[in-house]
Amino acid sequence: MNPTSCSNSAAGLCCPLCPESDNTQVQFSDRAVDKTVVETSCQPGPHTYHLECITRHFENSAAERKCVVCHQGPLPLLRADGARLVENSPYCESRALAICRRGDAASLDLLLAEVPEAATAKFRSAQTGDFVSLLSVVASLGYTSCLHALISRGANDLETALANAAAGRHLECLKLLIEEGVKNLDQDMKNALGKFEELRPRFEEADINFGPRAQVTFEHKGRELDHLTSYCALLGHAECLQVLIDNGAKSGMSLMVATNSGHINVMRVVLNSSLLMSINYSTNVSLLIAADAGRSDCLKLLLEHMKSINPGLLKEALRAYASNLNNRT
User: Fold this and answer.
1) How would you write the chain as a 3-class SS string?
2) Which stretch of 29-33, 87-91, 105-109 has the lowest confidence by average pLDDT?
3) Does residue 309 contact residue 303 with C-beta atoms inside 8 Å?
4) Pairing mode, if any, of strands 48-50 and 78-79?
């Protein structure tokens, strides 16, 4: 099927993929055509197709899913009559995803009131084919109002959302997710932390240097220990955090939590551990958090432990730090 510049005057539609024979008819020929009108996500403006036409085009050229007009990536396609609650086309997205991509918090509130389970469900991305949570999508785009709406309805894909917010350097989203992640620690984890608190005086009395004598056998292992590192970071318990790390816990978001809370002793524990041998998003985002909060001591510590730094990131951090100083004066 060759692309043509065509129009169906009865529908007021331009579809670059309609056959020439159909262009001269008010009605389509006998072929089965879904007359659903869709718009692409092309920038600066969309292009219009019939859903069936562009679906056939994609299926015939799966490796080259581009708009035939501007050659951009056209996905997701947007239905002209509105996104569906449940979407059956792989090239369009559900109403929930469409709302979140445009950051429409008011519409999201209405949707979640109608379908509360959408807050924790996953939806197929037309761009990648993967199933994604709404929380991870709005975090990647920096929509804090949508984050609040989803979290209040029980959205719980915090780890993916945190990574997405960090990758996009959306600091307000990042702080909100950190607070929520710590607040949502379940009672078992808090009970486990209580065991560390009971041991803490013994650490201090023995003047333990976090060597072999600090090894403790814990009932809670794996991911639960990982989450506890963030809780220790929030409370500033560097000794407990060290014991967790010594027993196999990953640092997770503890560096960002400690930076956000200004607990420099906790930051030292994480930065001196073997878990951060290479630069990753935790150190990069922590740098921005410290700059945004105007914490020069935290900034200095982070820069000392960064073997290399992106010039753009450093410039952004310095700008945030200068802005903070100006706001104080």
Assistant:
1) CCCCCCCECCCCECCCCCCHHHHCCCCCCCCCCCCCEEECCCCCCCCEEEHHHHHHHHHHCCCCCCCCCCCCCCCCEEECCCCCCCCCCCCECCHHHHHHHCCCHHHHHHHHHHCHHHHCCEEECCCCCCEEEHHHHHHHHCCHHHHHHHHHCCCCCHHHHHHHHHHCCCHHHHHHHHHHHHHCCCHHHHHHHHHHHHHHHHHHHHCCCCCHHHCCCCCCCCHHHHHHHHHHHHHCCHHHHHHHHHCCCCCCCHHHHHHHHCCHHHHHHHHHCHHHCCCCHHHHHHHHHHHHHCCHHHHHHHHHHCCCCCHHHHHHHHHHHHHHHHHHC
2) 29-33
3) yes
4) unpaired
C-beta of residue 195 within 8 angstroms of C-beta of residue 243: no
The partner residues of 228 in beta bridges, in order of sequence, read none
How far apart are the C-alpha atoms of 279 and 24, rounded to whole Å? 61
Over 60: is that where the pLDDT of 191 sits?
A: no
| Residue 199's pLDDT band (cuts 50, 70, 90) | very low
Highest mean pLDDT of the ranges 126-130, 192-196, 214-218: 126-130
Alpha-carbon distance of 100 to 112, in angstroms, equals 12
Rounded to the nearest 10°, the torsion over CA 240, 242, 247, 250 is 100
Q: Lowest mean pLDDT of 67-71, 200-204, 295-299, name the range.
A: 200-204
Residue 76 pLDDT > 80: yes
Q: Which two tokens stand for residue 86?
A: 């449940």
Give the span between the Cα atoms of 2 and 19, in whole angstroms: 7
pLDDT classification of 208: cutoffs 50, 70, 90: very low
Length of the chain: 329
- Spell out the residues 6+ positions from residue 260 whose beta carbon is closer than 8 angstroms to its own: 175, 178, 289, 293
